[in-house]
Amino acid sequence: MLRPEVRHVLGVAFPHTDAGTSLDAELERSFLRLAYSVGRLSRSGESAAGYFAVLRQEVRDAVQRLQSRYDVGESVHIVFTSLLVSDMTRLNEATDAAANEGDPSVLTSVARQIAIETLRREIALQEPDALESQAQDSQPFGVPWDFYGRTQAPGGRTACDSESHHRPM
Length: 169
Description:
This protein is 47% helix and 16% strand.
């Protein structure tokens, strides 16, 4: 049996900075969609990895509980790193703007940008050859992933592996 040639890399950026009960269902749904997609690709003989980016430790802890509850293992990597000073400044400014304008979507929008940037940095470190695909129609299961890319699967077959290299006599 041939090993998969391509590894699918899927990423979700969870933009909310708290894990209150109103967001628990959204957090769980986002995580399960990623875990299910990675699992389904893997079961169909494809290689796949998922990355789930969060901005706060409390949200990371909640995702770790989901990872354990649903026995996801290492197929979905939780991305949580210390924010850059510039990111913390942007979040603080967005928090102030959201409070002044009475519009929490301002904070969510900025947090989403920061989470996507964090997600892309981590994927670039862990999957350096992954090429991001912007085409919506090429993304698995029709889901608009925050990151979708492909790279050669670890131990995957290359074009040279499938060709015969016989010399003529």
